[in-house]
Amino acid sequence: xxxxxxxxxxxxxxxxxxxxxxxxxxxxxxxxxxxxxxxxxxxxxxxxxxxxxxxxxxxxxxxxxxxxxxxxxxxxxxxxxxxxxxxxxxxxxxxxxxxxxxxxxxxxxxxxxxxxxxxxxxxxxxxxxxxxxxxxxxxxxxxxxxxxxxxxxxxxxxxxxxxxxxxxxxxxxxxxxxxxxxxxxxxxxxxxxxxxxxxxxxxxxxxxxxxxxxxxxxxxxxxxxxxxxxxxxxxxxxxxxxxxxxxxxxxxxxxxxxxxxxxxxxxxxxxxxxxxxxxxxxxxxxxxxxxxxxxxxxxxxxxxxxxxxxxxxxxxxxxxxxxxxxxxxxxxxxxxxxxxxxxxxxxxxxxxxxxxxxxxxxxxxxxxxxxxxxxxxxxxxxxxxxxxxxxxxxxxxxxxxxxxxxxxxxxxxxxxxxxxxxxxxxxxxxxxxxxxx
Length: 437
What we know:
This protein is of the alpha/beta class. It contains 18 helices and 17 strands. Strands 2-1-3-15-6 form a five-stranded mixed beta sheet, with helices on both faces. Strand 4 (about 135) and strand 5 (about 140) form a beta hairpin. It is globular.
């Protein structure tokens, strides 16, 4: 698998360091890592299968024990909870942070550099590009866990019943959306999530957009490029024409529409297979997975999320926290415990463990389909020209504020993108950085 966005990432990281964006230093000494008894860590996260992974770790280790607290997903309030805890000085030792949000946590000084514990030999076990996304300003800030290539999940039984071809292009996706609505006026092919900009960002990434770019001493922000404009107009058209549902992500309304068959598909990522399997066990055998439609029919993908494990700045248990994070990310036991929970379809950043993940995942829900082979192909097609800036949270908050009000005759997707652009420029300017765009 080859995901080559190394040049952009290194450029952004080096420039960010020069601009003093990434200024967080290591926390306290590891004096609490080697007491007379077992080390007790606190860990906050939300990914499916985490509780089972923690239980397996605790059962097999006597030197380290982990207290796990499940928090809302990052965009649903988890990041705010982590940030507030860091500010209050009572943050857990280890937290889950997705790749897009890592630069912002680093730039705010919330995390520790873990390079002394997460060594070059450790990093060699993982996808190099995932390691690069956690290496900012020449320092290592997190242990990568998974990659998250995009995929299209669909009700195979319903597509077959109504003789709807599985779309391979976005033009075909719109035609399929029209067929779905014609087959059942209450049904839609998929859902536009008004509370979560990350899916839209992944679509822009897939189309070839590059919102953030660091050159010399300047951040260049471009959200009016042809790729973004094309994606914005396309999804605005689907919303205006009533061809997609509009429900909050993973809400009771969204889940209900899947259960009653009025949503035929889900535009998600590799981890979405576990979400569907855990949410809709009664629909086992009715779902299938296809590559995400692309603009020209050739394979193309962005990244929709993807998780890392980071040590907070005041933790005195860095060595133990990194050891636990590595166990979850780089051992057969850790990956098996998570995926055999039945709710996770994580696509490990540790490439050698993907056969382990494939074996641990019960593919019966998808009619025995080898979904990990599809994830491999999708991952190989991830567009290489994307890097995350240091203000993803600011961007997403501004976009989200408008997303929820998008409707025919009301605010548009273009308005949402502009709000995100303006908020990003304002925040970078407030930090004293040079900005173009």
